Amino acid sequence: MAETPKFTTVADSDSRRTPVRVAFVTRRKSPHVKAVDDPEVMTYPETLLRVVVAGELLTLALVAISLLWNAPLEGLADPLLTPNPAKAPWYFLGLQELLHYFPPVVGGVLIPTMVVMALVVIPYFNVNVEADGIWTRNKTRRLRTLTVAVAVLGLGMLLLDVWAILAPTLGMAALMYWTAAGRAGGGGRVKRWLAGKPLPFWIMTWFLIEATVLTVIGTFFRGPGWSWVWPWRPQ
Predict the structure, then answer these.
(1) In sequence order, which residues have a C-beta less than 8 Å from that of residue 215 and are 6 or more positions away?
(2) In the beta sheet, which residues pair with residue 29?
(3) Which residues contact 202 (CB under 8 A, 6 or more apart)?
(4) What backbone torsions phi and psi does residue 34 show, to the nearest 5 degrees?
(5) Are 32 and 13 contacting, i.e. CB atoms less than 8 angstroms apart?
(6) What does the buried/exposed string (b/e) look like for 121-133 if buried means 16 or more CB atoms within 10 Å of the residue's CB?
(7) Which of 1, 29, 53, 183 has the fewest C-beta atoms lying within 10 Å of its C-beta?
(8) Which residues of the chain, if any, have pLDDT below 50?
(9) CA 224 to centroid of chain Cα atoms
(10) 180-188 contacts at long range (C-beta below 8 A, 24 or more positions apart)
């Protein structure tokens, strides 16, 4: 037996947000429906063509670089002579840097898995489904939530001495507080642009900054025994 649909009465003229509606039209008035089309780009051929062109340009650039400079390869691998430090490829150095702070199961499995799952699931949560700016509604409650989240994460990273995660997190939080300060729509162009970004934008930006910081530290600032070194000082 099919379920009876549930209807609610709301005052809304946006057909995108409320596609199913019953209109009550009084005399001497005509029905008015507001429908705003967001900027859209078709997947084929526009987006696919851009991806193909970008891939070809990147391939040509890599070929040109390989013709001009030799790859910084080392000698053949010798199981009797392990380099110190033994570094993973650059795209795994962020995970290797996490292993410096956390146990292998935590730094190599749990944290990457939770981060990837969060990046996949968060955009589908009903926390900002209309892609409004993060401070557009419930500003006080969202500021309180941000403060609690940053305090808990910051205290944990401080106790574990994980400055590589703590510093970018505090920087991102400071930027979010800055965009929330003042009246809505005020400030310069950059502040208004950031204030109009939804929650997934901030989470993805934080993730990219963290990944970049961890990769840069593992590449340039780790020496023998994975100790901290300055890249401009001879080893």
Answers:
(1) 90, 91, 93, 94, 97
(2) none
(3) 134, 172, 176
(4) -95, 120
(5) yes
(6) eebeeeebeeeeb
(7) 1
(8) 128-129
(9) 32
(10) 180/135, 180/139, 180/143, 184/135, 184/136
Taking only the tens place, the pLDDT of each residue in 191-210 is 888 888 888 888 889 989 99
Dihedral in degrees, nearest 10, Cα atoms 104, 107, 110, 114: -170
Count other C-beta atoms under 10 Å from residue 192's C-beta. Answer: 14
Q: What is the pLDDT of residues 14-27, one digit of tens each?
A: 666 666 666 666 66
Rounded distance between C-alpha atoms, residue 203 and residue 205, angstroms: 5
Contact, 199 vs 59, CB < 8 A?
no
CB–CB of 162/100 below 8 Å?
no
Q: pTM for the whole thing?
A: 0.68
Domain boundaries, the chain: 84-226
Instruction: State residue 139's pLDDT score.
Output: 84
User: In the numeric block, which tokens belong to residue 167?
Assistant: 């510093």
